[in-house]
Write a structure and sequence with these properties.
Elements: H1 2-33, H2 40-65, H3 75-96, H4 102-128
Helix pairs in contact: 1-2, 1-4, 2-3, 3-4
């Protein structure tokens, strides 16, 4: 019962992550179309997205350690995608924060958000196959 509930929460957080990163990417594009740099509210939302991915990872790790990893066709690939979803945003921030051109930085952060959306989608697909 608890494993089933945890599994449902894990799937729900994945759906939330997909929608969240779509919204974050569109928001970054909105900043770009208005020719404004990303502000603290956007970076705060990005931090919330990162926390969402960390919680998702640890909940998945708990499910995996309790034996649900046997139900995954390609558990190793699923875990690799999860690791990519955790390290992408901080790595992008470390690299892009040194850029001087705010317009390019904003576009690249939007691309990173859409990439993360696709990583989460792909992680779900790997889990379902």
């Amino acid at each position: 019962m608890i494993l089933e509930l945890s599994s449902d929460i894990h799937r729900g957080l994945a759906r939330t992550g997909i929608l969240f990163f779509i919204a974050l990417g569109v928001w970054a594009l909105w900043f770009r179309f208005r020719s404004r740099p990303l502000d603290g509210s956007w970076y705060g939302a990005a931090a919330i997205g990162e926390l969402l991915m960390i919680v998702e990872f640890f909940l998945g790790w708990i499910l995996y350690s309790q034996g649900l990893g046997e139900n995954l066709a390609r558990a190793f690939v699923h875990i690799l995608y999860a690791i990519v979803s955790i390290i992408t945003l901080p790595a992008a921030y470390l690299y892009l924060s040194r850029m001087k051109n705010e317009n390019i930085k904003t576009i690249l952060f939007a691309i990173v958000c859409f990439f993360l959306m696709e990583v989460v989608i792909r992680t779900r697909v790997v889990a379902l196959v």
